[in-house]
Amino acid sequence: MKRYALLAFGLLIPSDVSAKTITLKGSDTMVILGQRWAEDYMKQHAGAIIQVTGGGSGTGIAALINGSTDIAEASRPMKPEEKAAVRAKSGKEVAEIPVALDGLSIYVHQANPLESISMPKLKAVYTGKTTKWEELGAPLGPVIAYGRENNSGTYAFFKEHVLKNEDFAPEVLSMPGTAAVINAVSKDKKAIGYGGIAYAKGIKVLKVSREDQSPAIEATMANVVSGKYPLSRFLYFYTAGQPDGEVKAFIDWVLGAEGQKICSSVGYFPLTKSKKDAP
Question: I need a labelling partner for 33 at 20 to 30 A (CA). Which of 49, 134, 152, 209 fits?
């Protein structure tokens, strides 16, 4: 598990400041974004201390339930039973705060001749019904499919929206993080994988169509914000109860102009409309 701990190294914390350490834990997809938010916020706010840890959306949500994190980062919505567990443990309702947009992307090797794939064909690959690239129009032999572990929000989102909650084929290789998926796909012409758009470097990203005969859509900002891209999704912060104090100040900054600008610099998309508008 990849771990990040960002502390106020190099910052002079005044002796009269009682700094609260703000903890963010969860989504591997969001860890690079959380890292940048923390770094920039601490530079601008003397005395602020923020720790960011990855491990998957499920890890962050579990930490929110047991009270060991201030903010859970998640690349999927929390389930009703998870919210109920937070309520039972803390006596507080969960606050759901969309903080960025992502176009979940389909990765292939740069030498792969395909430019697009449909959702039904993608489902066939990951449920084991399609096993050769020739069935998809590429002369590459057996398909080697990479995915994420089941505590990943990206895994859960992909299973719900692509597989329609069918099971992944046992041949799908589970990787501990999106960076590991990218690394594997970049080295194997027969590979396919999925993950956040911000990680898409050194590989080819396929356009995606909703049906076999419908237009293939690129994961651009305009297409993700409008929902035209089939795998558009929010990235979330979750807190137990409405945020207050230093946590609220940090979240307000993330949702403001400076924080949202960082979304674009990392490779995700800012909330350009009301934060409650679904993509």
Answer: 209
First to last CA, the chain: 30
Report the C-alpha gap between 262 and 221 in whole angstroms.
14
Q: How far apart are CA 107 and CA 217, in angstroms?
A: 14
Whether 248 is covered by a domain: the verdict is yes
Residue 38 lies in a domain: yes
| Residue labelled with tokens 């895994």 | 155
Q: Do 135 and 88 share a structural domain?
A: no
Beta strands in 27-162 (DSSP E): 49-53, 71-74, 94-103, 105-108, 116-118, 144-148
**Whether residues 92 and 134 fall in one domain:** no
Read off the pLDDT of residues 182-197 as tens digits, 9 standing for 90 and up.
999 999 999 999 999 9
Q: Which residues contact 87 (CB under 8 A, 6 or more apart)?
A: 93, 94
CA dihedral 259, 204, 2, 78 (to 10 degrees): 60
pTM of the model: 0.87
CATH, residue 96: 3.40.190.10
Q: What is the DSSP letter of 217?
A: B
